């Protein structure tokens, strides 16, 4: 997920402070991985430096000064370009699940054990996401659908990998 483009999209809805951008990012895109405040402000500084945002106002209060950021015409152009450019499928890399199964095979350990354990965890996560889906907003439902779709794909792969490992075993493995 591009924090830069998420911020541009959030700012396209209207000017915001960094704190609010972090809250909105975590709410919409953070799923188990919230942004650190340092990343928020370094991203905003970079966007300002590159002319994609500007500071509308600096507000003083009890704490540190708060800057209110707005997207610029260059920022809108960058956001439009990003939205218009499809994500290439090859940008989706092999993940840790694949790595664990292959490492288990290469190390002479039980890939079936890894696959069964992961299947249990994925199935439980799928149940919790489906339960959350019932009362969710449209945006949250879309996020949950995305996560559920990826879990389904992982579960399909787990089943396929389990069948292959059972059928072929080490005879088809790397040498």
Beta strand %: 5-15%
- Outline the biggest β-sheet: 3 strands, antiparallel
Helix content: 55-70%
Secondary structure tally: strands: 3
SS-based structural class? mainly alpha
User: Could you give the order of the helices and strands?
Assistant: HEHHEEHHHH
How would you describe the shape?
Answer: elongated
Mean pLDDT: 87
Instruction: Count helical runs.
Output: 7
In CATH, the homologous superfamily of the largest domain goes by the name Winged helix-like DNA-binding domain superfamily/Winged helix DNA-binding domain
Instruction: Give the uncertain stretches in residue-range form.
Output: 171-175
CATH top level of the largest domain is Mainly Alpha
How would you portray this structure in words?
Strand 2 and strand 3 (66-71) form a beta hairpin. The protein has 175 residues and is mainly α. It has helices at 3-12, 18-29, 37-49, 73-84, 96-106, 111-133, 138-168, and strands at residues 16-17, 53-59, 66-71. Mean pLDDT is 87; it is low at 171-175. A three-stranded antiparallel sheet has the order 1-3-2.
């Amino acid at each position: 997920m591009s924090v830069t483009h998420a911020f541009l999209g959030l700012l396209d809805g209207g000017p915001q402070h960094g704190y609010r951008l972090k809250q909105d990012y975590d709410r919409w895109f953070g799923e188990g991985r919230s942004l650190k405040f340092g990343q928020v402000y370094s991203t905003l500084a970079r966007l300002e430096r590159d002319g994609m945002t500007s500071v509308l106002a600096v507000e003083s209060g009890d704490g540190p000064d708060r800057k209110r950021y707005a997207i610029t015409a260059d920022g809108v152009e960058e956001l439009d370009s990003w939205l218009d450019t499809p994500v290439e499928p090859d940008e989706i890399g092999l993940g840790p699940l694949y790595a664990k199964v292959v490492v288990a095979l290469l190390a002479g350990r039980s890939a079936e054990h890894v696959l069964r354990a992961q299947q249990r965890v994925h199935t439980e996560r799928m149940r919790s996401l489906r339960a959350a889906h019932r009362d969710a907003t449209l945006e949250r439902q879309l996020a949950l659908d995305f996560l559920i779709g990826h879990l389904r794909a992982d579960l399909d792969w787990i089943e396929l990998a389990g069948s292959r490992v059972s059928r072929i075993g080490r005879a088809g493995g790397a040498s």
